[in-house]
Write a structure and sequence with these properties.
Layout: H1 2-12, E1 21-30, E2 48-54, E3 65-68, H2 76-88, H3 93-96, E4 99-101, E5 110-113, E6 118-120, E7 135-143, H4 150-153
Antiparallel strand pairs: 1-7, 2-5, 2-7, 3-4, 3-6
Length: 159
């Protein structure tokens, strides 16, 4: 995935002039009937960019990632307070914030700042009008040299 992301990151200047380095990579899978994640940031370190590459078409029927537009510029305490507020009432997010839903064709790249408030939305079951297929997404976190996004990567693995 770095083969595709590096030219974009170099051109953007988001992670320094060399395109940064991949700090982590993996695969996230959402399954039909999956509940939404809570809104969260992956950390507070500037100079870190997440890149998602879906292996299937991501539509509203399979729970796309949702990002609160502009939240990457918020102070850490404000972002944490918003995440806490939305954990009690995430429906209010749609009234209070502009939310970008990352629907895209398979093989697309979706890059966003590590500090952005985001979540994986619900993946409705087929009975509820959703997709019958899992939604696998490759991801990387690319960082500018000298940056270590500890906030996210010190959590234990589920496996």
């Amino acid at each position: 995935i770095r083969h595709w992301t590096q030219p974009v990151l170099e051109a953007s200047g988001l992670v320094g002039s060399g395109g940064g380095r991949v700090q982590a990579a993996g695969l996230v899978i959402s399954v039909p009937g999956g509940v939404p994640q809570g809104f969260h940031t992956d950390g507070s370190s500037p100079g870190c960019v997440n890149c998602f590459c879906p292996l299937v078409n991501v539509t509203n029927a399979c729970g796309p990632t949702e990002v609160l537009s502009g939240s990457h510029t918020w102070e850490r305490a404000h972002a944490a307070a918003v995440c806490d507020q939305l954990s009690d009432d995430f429906a209010s997010a749609y009234e209070s914030y502009h939310i970008a839903r990352a629907t895209m064709p398979a093989g697309s790249l979706f890059l966003f700042d590590f500090r952005a408030v985001h979540r994986g939305s619900a993946h409705p079951s087929e009975e509820a009008g959703g997709s019958v297929l899992p939604r696998p997404i490759l991801y990387t976190c690319t960082v500018e040299p000298g940056t270590t996004p500890w906030d996210f990567f010190d959590h234990p693995s589920l496996f």
